[in-house]
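Shapes recur. One chain:

:::
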Amino acid sequence: MSRRLEIELTSTREDGTWTWRAAGAKVPKGVVESSLLPNESKIGDVLKIEADFDIDGITVLSVVPQRDKSQKATFLQLIDDKPFTGVTEKLAKKSKSDRPQRDKRGPRTDRPARTDNAERKPRTERPPRDRAPRTPADKSTAPVVQLPHRPVAKRLKPNRKHRSAVLQSLPVEQRSVAERALAGGIRAVREAIKTQNAQLKAEGKPEVKADGLISMAQDILPKLRVAEWLDKAEAAKSDLALLDLRDLRAVVVGADDPMVVRDETTRSLATELKIALKQRQETEMTQWLEDIKAALAATRVLRAIKLSGEPPKAGVLFPADLGQQLTKATADSLSNEASSDRWIAILEALAFSPIRTSVKPLGAPQATTDALRQTVKRLAPLIPQIAALFAIEVKPGAQTPRPLRPPRPKREFKRKPKALKSDGAKPDSAKPDSVSSEHANSDLANPTPAPDMPAETDSSSGDSISTASQSA
């Protein structure tokens, strides 16, 4: 999609092109053909361009002509033979009060004479005044429909209480084997042993037998799987009301792991989480339908379409009566007078909604843009009846598109400068920041000691592997 941008010409090239950058900034920047620029262009000129932003970069399409700000206003000339004569104006003094003035010694003449106080009605007996309404009766406003506010779901953040307890109970030389088995299973342990034996063979050292390490991993892995599941289950239990259903469902499915089922400590907690999952699904389903109905009542058609494509449980059937209401509202929104941007937003949500095949607009919009045609072409396998309005044919076996996701912002990490030593000398640069290849390959055999355990002395990978193999 093209958009306008103000640029500043920075330099010229030998091939006739000009380099540019955003006016007043370093980026974005690029190259523009000289044929698109005015003849009197020079370095430092600020122009407004029409550019196309895509994956390959920024392509300048045209230069937008600007009005000349130096045009002066046209003044009318007064032609008169008489000489100019100045005018003097003197304003009369105005009294501070608009009330008529009277002599303090004489009676007031601006109102009738007051009768006897006894003949006057007391203030309580006077009829009430007819007060005017605060707002005119003809200005009636329709009541605003408030959409229900739902709290944001929390993602699962388990701690490592049970996992750390199992690792602390193991000998130091077995912890790296246990961590590798927990990360990738027995297959990861075999691959690590194979890589380490290849390095030992290249160094002329004896290889390590894999049977002992694999047997050790097979004995430790069930305890680690149970400890890992307990950490997730306890974290899920603490946030049952606001936990994301996907995370809660993953924890319940993990309870069916054969290693977890065999342990008696997990059965009661697994049963409790299964009951909680069923209740949460029923509550989420009710709230989901209520949100769609509220969005339709508030004429928030786009929100209702998006909600219909995000059910709390996969494979749930959409209600037929609610689907008819949503289909009619969507077809009315896709009218001929609607803008292309409105069509794009609705089609992006409709393509992944359960009512996508039942919506049939009367025709394409009057102003069709390239961005709209590209959107319809991408979503054509899901909405073929709408693609036919734009004369776009769906090829058999076309790949089903995926919903667009907003790009994640790029995070920039700044490295902290290394602190100087106490004597003012720079730190030793001979020590590399990363681990050497020997220690990297001996991950299984040279584990990292726990905080409360004393550090091991430096040893070669062959000695460490043999120690772990002997302990197995």
